[in-house]
């Protein structure tokens, strides 16, 4: 429950602090006095967005702070999940800075608006005319039925399986799409892969083949050059090797005479050895040279295959082609894996579908049992609210689709008078009837689920007299289970509250302000009398006010 609310520099409120009690509290005031401002401030605490227009003084920040007792709401898990300090007496603060930035805090820990909104759902339910219209929404109607049917746990189990079911379905659809696309490309990819496999590509192969091709393609030029080199090197009388050996012998004779000659002798000796080795290599190269047109043609064709593949795949090296080959092999292999995965997912989906059907059937049976009880309770309450001939027709039929709360489709029909056909709520119920139906719904839900603080914002629209008295009594009965606040224009409802606040405007130094005051018993008599007769209070109005309060 909310225990206190303080507002500073918001709309027409300069500074306001108010303490709330448990039970049934009333807020009254003339139209435009500022009741909507109080609700707006609470809305900010619950995570609604704000802007600079909220600031009364644009040079100062706006601060709204609300205190809540939450020990009975089982919210420890929420605080732990959001890494917040849990306190039985929790404080929510909202600040709007002159710059337009907004900050929010839960027990002095900064939070974002989403976290604030998630917590707000457990703390306050502000019931307005707009929410009354939500009664026509099928999801809201199901929530009402499911509360009576005690379907909360089975729906959670159903939703957990549904989440996995939808995930598997999404994966399956993705794989099926991929399989379809792959199948179209598979034949071409297989052709490309076979081309690459047939080419028997190896890293470095292109360079080796190009080198061999150059040798074979220029064998005559190469052989002529090598043979000429060998002839020059090895000619018996004037060959290079013979001359080097003679130089070597000459230097060897004078080597002992000087370190200089010794060095030259050693160098020429090394040169002879190196030249002899070069000559031997040339001899081997000459012997290996073959004029092999068949081999040349084979290598040429092999290179042409490589060049064609590189051009087709728009790459420059054999390593690039090998990489493409690996990808194509994986692609072909992946298609086989896709088929296996599709089979697994299909089995999993079938099992989850079976589980969902079991949960959905249980949800359906619980609803079938709850509907007569809900209808009877609604009729019993509404008869006391001036709707003696009200009837409801709620039909749930299991369909094939999996919805978020089961497989049921709902027809929630209503008739207010004898002899009239059933129709949809939003089409056949008046504003006053919708308000009374919503109050009846809230009263019933209070018996079956832990509701947060309820704030009724002029739920009395379209009613008066004895009906208003009964509405006040119902709200007072509800306040035995929870904290209830009602903003009302009807004295009959105002008189039922345990505490009574009045919103009014005042003018200070040409500045209009909204203020909120907790009324004493005498002030309360006067306020209700004014609600009955207007600004001029008669004796009969005072007596009537006292009677209502008694």
UniProtKB/TrEMBL annotation:
Entries under SUPFAM superfamilies matching the protein: P-loop containing nucleoside triphosphate hydrolases
A cellular component term, taken from the record's GO annotations: bacterial nucleoid
Source organism superkingdom: Bacteria
Domain RecF/RecN/SMC N-terminal stretches: 2-506
A single BP term in Gene Ontology: DNA repair
Segments forming a coiled coil: 162-219
DNA repair keyword on record: yes
Gene Ontology molecular function, alphabetical: ATP binding
Function: May be involved in recombinational repair of damaged DNA.
Protein name in UniProt: DNA repair protein RecN
Species assigned in the record: Flavobacterium shii
